[in-house]
Design a protein that fits this description.
Low-confidence stretches: 300-319
Largest sheet: 4 strands, mixed
Strand order of the largest sheet: 1-2-4-3
Helix content: 55-70%
Enzyme class: hydrolase
Radius of gyration: 26 Å
EC number: 3.4.24.84
Order of helices and strands: HHHHHHHEHEEEHHHHHHHHHH
GO biological process, one term: liver development
Number of strands: 4
Cofactor: Zn(2+)
Membrane topology: Multi-pass membrane protein
């Protein structure tokens, strides 16, 4: 009886109050669900203190314990940062933070001689202030994550000066892209007439394609040093493999990721006949700064035969050596190029653009509803930017959660297919050992709660991938 009475009371509320209540309720429901999943996984980190039998051949006890403690620290950090984020978001909504920032933006525009009719100018000031607020409130969390957690577990290679310069540079570059793109998008929505959603979608499609094209050539080098992979056996073998599968490779770069962190990665980019491959120096055994440090500590040049090295140095190299051998790097690239050959990249772009079109269409349907604006404190005006924020971030949040889960499931499927592609290239054995090494280098914990991994993991758990490779691994 009490439950139905409260539901009746809710339905008798004005529409804007119902919308606001539903948005807050959904936000906290998602937060509690995520926290429940994280606690399940945290229990695994706390209780799995010995290497399970099936991992005996893959992971030594020392690495297993290191990865367990690293993931435990990350999990604690994630809990507190997630709680802060949820409380901050709720307080901003409850105390009218969004309309306040909009009025403040209007005041700044007024000082510069721009009246309320300059809505796009006010929108840009709003965006600048909102991203500045977000950057400043996120900074302490980012500092703690980098200089406490990553530092403690041996991953951080940044100085405080480098970190702050990097953060300022990121903020400036973001504004240089965000503000012009947003002003054009708002202008298109204003003048686009009844079919503005088609033009807005086409504009965002062009912008995303341009950004993908210029990112690695013009944006990424602002933050990291890219050098062409020198001529040699590895480059030759990469070019042969690319040619064998008709991958239109033009350049291979090594990025100096080690000045930031010892985490490793590899990716490709570019459209049509202009593809480039990027390898992190931390992925390559012969480039790894950590391996060079070990050689310097040992006071000698590395020897291929290993003779003359003290037992202590041998043990140190065995335990600390980072990165993959050339054959393993080729296997990792075989997996990455599998994504291209099997059309995963194109499929992801198509899904993303279909989703983008649907969202703009629904935005066009909903933008005229004044109660949506009233729900968030906008009673006298309905700015387009605020409409985009309300509809895309809050109204679409249930749809975004479902879509995100579906894309996670699809991503895991694609990963298995890319592994199978590398296996077809005869790289199963090398990919098998590369996955183990990368898991070790990045301190990935190989035991996971089934529900947590199903909801979060875009890559299948290590054991599942190794099992799939082992089934037909060549000798």
């Amino acid at each position: 009886m009490g439950m139905s009475a409260s539901l009746d009371a809710m339905w008798e509320m004005p529409a804007e109050k119902r919308i606001f209540g539903a948005v807050l309720l959904f936000s906290w429901t998602v937060y509690l669900w995520e926290t429940f999943l994280a606690q399940r996984q945290r229990r695994i980190y706390k209780t799995t203190t010995r290497v399970p039998p099936e991992l005996g051949q893959i992971m030594d006890a020392e690495t297993f314990e290191k990865s367990r403690l690293y993931q435990l620290d990350k999990s604690t950090f994630s809990f507190w940062s997630g709680l802060y984020s949820e409380v901050e978001g709720t307080l901003i909504l409850l105390f009218g933070g969004i309309p306040y920032l909009w009025r403040l933006s209007g005041r700044f525009c007024g000082y510069a001689g721009f009246g309320p009719e300059y809505e796009i100018t006010q929108s840009l000031v709003f965006l600048l202030l909102a991203t500045l607020f977000s950057a400043l409130t996120g900074l302490p969390w980012s500092l703690y994550n980098t200089f406490v957690i990553e530092e403690k577990h041996g991953f951080n290679h940044q100085t405080l000066e480098f970190f702050m310069k990097d953060a300022i540079k990121k903020f400036i570059v973001t504004q240089c892209i965000l503000l012009p793109v947003s002003s054009l998008l708002l202008y298109i929505i204003k003048i686009g007439g009844d079919y503005f959603f088609i033009y807005a979608w086409l504009f965002t499609l062009v912008v995303s394609l341009v950004l993908v094209t210029i990112y690695a050539d013009y944006i990424a080098p602002l933050f990291d040093k890219f050098t062409p992979l020198p001529e040699g056996k590895l480059k030759q073998e990469i070019e042969v493999m690319a040619k064998n599968i008709d991958f239109p490779l033009t350049k291979v770069y090594v990025v100096e990721g080690s000045k930031r962190s010892s985490h490793s990665n590899a990716y490709f980019y570019g459209f049509f006949k202009n593809k480039r491959i990027v390898l992190f120096d931390t992925l390559l055994e012969e480039y790894s700064v950590l391996n060079k440090d070990i050689q310097e500590e040992s006071g000698m040049e590395p020897r291929n035969d290993g003779e003359g090295d003290s037992e202590e140095i041998k043990a140190k190299v065995k335990n600390k050596k980072q990165g993959c051998k050339n054959e393993e790097v080729l296997a990792v690239l075989g997996h990455e190029l599998g994504h291209w050959k099997l059309g995963h990249t194109v499929k992801n772009i198509i899904i993303s653009q279909m989703n983008s079109f649907l969202c703009f269409f629904l935005f066009a349907v909903l933008i005229g509803r004044k109660e949506l604006f009233a729900a968030f404190g906008f009673y006298d005006c309905q700015p387009t930017l605020i409409g985009l924020l309300i509809i895309f971030q809050f109204i679409f949040s249930p749809y975004n959660e479902v879509l995100s889960f579906c894309l996670t499931v699809l991503s895991r499927r694609f990963e298995f297919q890319a592994d199978a592609f590398a296996k077809k290239l005869g790289k199963a054995k090398d990919l098998y050992s590369a996955l183990i090494k990368l898991n070790k280098d990045n301190l990935g914990f190989p035991v996971s709660d089934w529900l947590f991994s199903m909801w979060h993991y875009s890559h299948p758990p290590l054991l599942e991938r190794l099992q799939a490779l082992r089934s037909t691994k060549q000798d």
